[in-house]
Amino acid sequence: MVEIREVRICVGSYGLQELKFTGAFFTWCNKQNRDIRVYNRIDRVLVNSDWNTMLPASEVHFMNEGLFDHGVTPGCDRKLAKECILKKQIIYQYLQQKSKIKWLQEGDQNTKFYHNFLKARRNANRIFTIKDKQGKFLTNTKEINKEFIDYYNELLGKAHEEWKHANSGIIKRGLVVTEEQ
């Protein structure tokens, strides 16, 4: 099990330790019947030595299987949830206003801030990979461009030189929608 070994190496190299826990020993169950039911303790909280120094009495409480499944804790007050949402909105609005002020101060002045903003925007709008009709992933920019052009040509069709423009006289003699309609 390579994954477990990699986790153990990571935990060891960062000096992490499992936080003391209370409550249910097993935190997962496969929800099968008696004979094939499996219990396991998959939830763990890892902390470093700084954590243990600053918060020596800390512990985690695992609720019984079925009572808690990484969702909202039972008995959480709606008022508390509303307060949390409101605080998040206030913080978000504050950060938005702060970023607008920074943009107004530095945005159009050819600063490092402005160029970093442009780079981030360019990368966010760039398409790095697409899947073609055969299911093959394309990463080359020229291939991606060609695939887009081919797709939209097939979807919308190509302009044909033999197509003639519509005769406006014929169109005017047909049914016309009035402003009242």
From TrEMBL:
Entry superkingdom: Eukaryota
InterPro entries: Endo/exonu/phosph_ase_sf
SUPFAM superfamilies for this protein: DNase I-like
Family annotation (PANTHER family): BNAC02G09200D PROTEIN (PTHR33710), ENDONUCLEASE_EXONUCLEASE_PHOSPHATASE DOMAIN-CONTAINING PROTEIN (PTHR33710:SF81)
Protein name stated in the entry: Uncharacterized protein
UniProt source species: Solanum pinnatisectum
